[in-house]
Write a structure and sequence with these properties.
heterodimer, A: mainly beta, four-stranded antiparallel beta sheet, B: 53% strand
Chain lengths: 115, 113
């Protein structure tokens, strides 16, 4: 079975500081990993994904994520936070081989960037 | 850009009614999904479809059914609405392939009174 955990319900960071949103996963094989962002009253928007290869993945809006197989983590990072980054962030995982298109999402982390 | 359109942003229905939520995507995606989103629970998959007339149950299919008669349209049906189905419902679509990202609509906030 596949599962994902986002250990922090909320993360607060000052504008201009680096931000990290944490994600850990559990799979029986190898993972496909995704990050999504949700702004108020909107659907989820895809940020980035890890499939294979380089452990540092770059995505939209200056975000990046680091895949760490030994720690089963896929933390989302940004060097300098903007107030407009304030949103709900979801990590998602799919086990490989999955035999299914089903993604498992974390419960989400609310990011607040303080001016 | 992929566009996933959900027919209603807000919907209010009564207990026992049959409720239809419609979703249309314009990018010829093979896969379509229905989720519900509840505070503290994240997203939970209700049903998904990987082809026309094909469907598979997700984690919480009870009380729901789906229909996919055309590739671009995926409907979620609440057979007899109950108050515990009050939620935000999100539709998504993706290309075939298990490493493809899903693209989401803006959601339907459904209230059952």
């Amino acid at each position: 079975a596949q599962s994902v955990a986002q250990p922090e319900d909320q993360v607060n960071v000052a504008e201009g500081n680096p931000l990290t949103v944490k994600c850990t996963y559990s799979v029986s094989g190898n993972p496909y990993l995704f990050w999504y962002v949700q702004y108020p009253n909107r659907g989820l928007q895809f940020l980035l994904k890890y499939i294979t290869g380089d452990n540092l993945v770059k995505g939209s809006y200056g975000f990046e994520a680091e895949f760490n197989k030994s720690q089963t983590s896929f933390h989302l990072k940004k060097p300098s936070a903007l107030v407009s980054d304030s949103a709900l962030y979801f990590c998602a995982v799919r086990d490989i081989p999955a035999g299914s298109y089903q993604l498992t999402f974390g419960k989400g982390t609310k990011l607040s960037v303080i001016p | 850009d992929v566009k996933v359109t959900q027919s209603s942003r807000y919907l209010v229905k009564r207990t026992g009614e049959k409720v239809f939520l419609e979703c249309v995507q314009d990018m010829d995606h093979e896969n379509m999904f229905w989720y519900r989103q509840d505070p503290g629970l994240g997203l939970r998959l209700i049903y998904f479809s990987y082809d026309v007339k094909m469907k598979e149950k997700g984690d919480i299919p009870e009380g729901y059914s789906v229909s996919r008669e055309k590739k671009e349209r995926f409907s979620l049906i609440l057979e007899s609405a109950s108050t515990n189905q009050t939620s935000m419902y999100l539709c998504a679509s993706s290309l075939e392939g298990d490493n493809q990202p899903q693209h989401f609509g803006d959601g339907t906030r459904l209230s059952i009174l």
